[in-house]
Amino acid sequence: MSNLSKTSAVSTAGVLISLGIIYGDIGTSPLYVMKAILGSASITETLVYGGISCVFWTLTLQTTIKYVLLTLQADNNGEGGIFSLYTLIRRRAPWLIVPAMVGGAALLADGMITPPISVSSAVEGLRIIQPDIPTVPIVIGIITIIFLLQSFGTEIVGKAFGPIMLLWFTMLGVLGGLSLAEHPEILRAINPYYAYNLLINYPGGFWVLGAVFLCTTGAEALYSDLGHCGRPNIRLSWGFVKICLLLNYLGQGAWLMTKEGSVLRENPFYGIMPSWFLLFGIAIATIAAIIASQALITGSFTLISEAIRLNLWPRVKLVYPTLQKGQLFVPSVNRLLWAGCIGIVLYFRESANMEAAYGMAITMAMLSTTILMSYYLYTRFKSLAIVTLFLAVYISIELAFMVANLSKFPHGGWVTIMIGGLLLTVMYIWIKAFYIKRNLTEYVRLKNYLPALKELSDDDTIPKYSTHLVFMTSAPKPKDVESKVIYSIFQKRPKRADIYWFVHVETTDKPFTSEYKVKQLEPGHVIRIDFKLGFRVEQRINLFFRKVVEELVANGEVDITSRYDSLSKQNRIGDFRFVVLEKFLSYENDLPFKNRLIMEWYFNIKKFAISESRWFGLDTSSVKVEQVPLVISPAKLPELKRVMA
């Protein structure tokens, strides 16, 4: 049984895994939500009851209905996330790449703020015991350790996540329930009237939504991790998680009502803990914050790997630390996230200050998902009424959250918007450059060159370049090939070989497709192989190609024995050599300003990406990389006039 099938069906193990992987972000929100709602205002019944009512209905409408019940339906062969959702509908509406890019950039920006605010909120509990303790070095140390451990994968640590988070949510529920028992009147806060009263009648009440929104920031990550646990396990575990979260929020509200009329001076999350339990509670909270950070980091790795295969991000090194499905490590992104997290800790220093930066970017991600999801619902149900209702409800809710979050902008919200904007700029440059190159790549009919290839292969006057010559081609049609490839074979340096192989890789909209086709264009001389690989499949073309050749030999479709007489008698296999064409921007270009700027930045960013040969997993000892000038718009030369000497 596959990993996917094991986690797709409802099981105790599946539910436990979902607790450990999915709910880190949303599960640690009680650490800071009520503290953010109260701020420096006096504790009143309107503010406490209204705040909890807003939290209850946000978790119900936003997390439960939108994500757990509706969005989880949009699974791409068991995979979730904004890019998986986009691949389900992109063929019908290519313009939807815009909200997909915005949402992806926002989620990556969120990955830089979640570890600092979660770990800082947990560690700051130590100030109750030791008021003068310096928390910033502790937070930086913990975050650094988290990122250092990423290269080992989370297979071993992941097995412990579920039981720890089960303990965490149980602790939330029990502590909240005990506090709730002392002031059961707080249960009235479930009535939506209290939320309405706070937002409409309380001075500045609408802006409290910016703090309320923090309770649901992990909902987007919940959808992104669909592939790890399966829809049934997520839905079942969410029931338990939501009850525990609400009990804790209600318990914090009950405790706050005992302080009515005063100004909040301590985190209500720790206020409901007995003094003898405090140290243990801080330790569990810190571990839960680490798990929340871990989930966001690994989610960012998955997001980047999908973006790369959708041509939205430079091809960077991907590492698979274990054999377990979903285990992925991206060194460059790990360093980028670490630097971002440390910068945020040093800039804001306190979790209360980070609350101003938290939530701004993620509202953009949720709005993007709403737009993509509405189109998905239309393609599935063909009902304008359903789509209109969905859009009206969730655009209204999320726009309200966005407007409320705008009050945070001058106080730190600009940080995540700036980070998200930079990431979005990289995505825009990369996809725009991809289309510019694709639209202007010249293809030729391969059948017109088959006789010449056969003659070159048989021409003993030209030294043999390789027994088997393999070209990576971007031509989508089997009968076509780039004109630059033909130029490389016949003119740059005549490349004589016994067999010419043309290999094309197509990334499919499904996550785990692994298929190939073989076409003998000129039997025994020219062969084309087309790989169809899912956007979550590692492109180890060297190994895939070897396996295909072995199958062709076993079926008697091709003979790879060396054609040198002396080696053929010994049944020696001929050598294989790959040729990869890497483009560079030619000086012979006369581009419009915008396109020139895009292409210049594209090639500047490309310096930090890995080479084509490394990306395709080719053995570097058998690869020839040829630099090919990219002439997009030839410069217009002045007329030259010959003068007599």
From TrEMBL:
Q: Does the keyword Coiled coil apply?
A: no
Q: Which residues form the K+ potassium transporter integral membrane domain?
A: 15-442
Recorded GO cellular component terms are:
plasma membrane
The chain positions of domain K+ potassium transporter C-terminal read: 467-623
Compartments where located: Cell membrane; Membrane
Topology with respect to the bilayer: Multi-pass membrane protein
Keywords (A to Z) from UniProt: Cell membrane, Ion transport, Membrane, Potassium, Potassium transport, Symport, Transmembrane, Transmembrane helix, Transport
Pfam families recorded = K_trans, K_trans_C
Catalytic activity reads: K(+)(in) + H(+)(in) = K(+)(out) + H(+)(out)
Does Transport show up as a keyword for this record? yes
Q: Name one GO molecular function term.
A: symporter activity
Transmembrane stretches, start-end: 93-113, 133-152, 164-181, 193-215, 276-308, 360-378, 385-406, 412-431
What positions belong to coiled-coil segments? none
Q: Which family does it belong to?
A: Belongs to the HAK/KUP transporter (TC 2.A.72) family.
Which HAMAP family does its entry note? Kup (MF_01522)
Which PANTHER family does its entry note?
K+ POTASSIUM TRANSPORTER, OSMOTIC STRESS POTASSIUM TRANSPORTER
What does it do? Transport of potassium into the cell. Likely operates as a K(+):H(+) symporter.
In Swiss-Prot or TrEMBL terms, this protein is called Probable potassium transport system protein Kup
Gene this protein is translated from: kup
